């Protein structure tokens, strides 16, 4: 077989695979409500030993993963740190900061195929709460689309990360805003599923009867009812921090969230 013929055959096979994929992916979405695949990394990136140890020490979620999925998680953490700039404002950026922030984001998006988004390109970190010129108030964190930035008070990020059962996690909260905005604009398979399930989730905010039921049970903190964006972020904080209580208290809503981010229950508490 000549070199030119071999190249033609390879291109033909590639073209056939693309056609098959374009048929199978929509069918899989329709039948199983999930992408055809999530993880595929031909050149998987590895963390340094001390970086991996941070994950072991700080993320029970990571420790519950199989060896193969730990490799996927580490690859995504490495990619996150490579793709987004970390900027310290009156604070020095450390490897621990990068690992905890990246790990939180990867945990939230682990069930989604396209996890790196272009809505932000930088992480800005302050030592503690900071004054925002946008609304002339002190903030603990925010997602600022105009600046393409996610901003954290490190003091409050650490507090939310260290306390795993109070349903307050600044990292999850702000990255949930990012994910929400991304999936409203994107048409990749994970975003389509997210958007479809979000339309079911938001009924618990907009439907007065469902909303009254949520408030009567008192599981979600009052800040959830500020607007639909805060509603989703607060719910996702609860989903990761007290998942068993969530599932028992609001089983149908829990199911929608699990499908929305394509999450396996065994990885949660």
Would you kindly provide a written description of the structure presented here, covering whatever features stand out?
The structure is a single chain. The protein is an alpha/beta fold and 269 residues long. It has one domain. Helices cover 59% and strands 9% of the residues. It is built from 13 helices and six strands. The chain has helices at residues 3-32, 49-58, 60-63, 67-83, 95-109, 154-162, 170-185, 189-201, 203-206, 208-217, 228-241, 243-249, 251-260, and strands spanning 85-88, 122-126, 130-132, 137-139, 141-144, 149-153. The chain has a four-stranded mixed beta sheet with strand order 1-2-6-5. It has a two-stranded antiparallel ribbon with strand order 3-4. α4 (67-83) packs across α5, α8 runs antiparallel to α13 (251-260) and α12 packs across α13 (251-260). The protein is globular. The chain starts with a helix and ends in a 9-residue tail after the last helix. The mean pLDDT is 90. The chain crosses the membrane at residues 6-24. It comes from Flavobacterium gawalongense. InterPro entries: MtfA_fam (IPR010384), MtfA_N (IPR042252). Keywords: Membrane, Transmembrane, Transmembrane helix. This is Zinc-dependent peptidase.
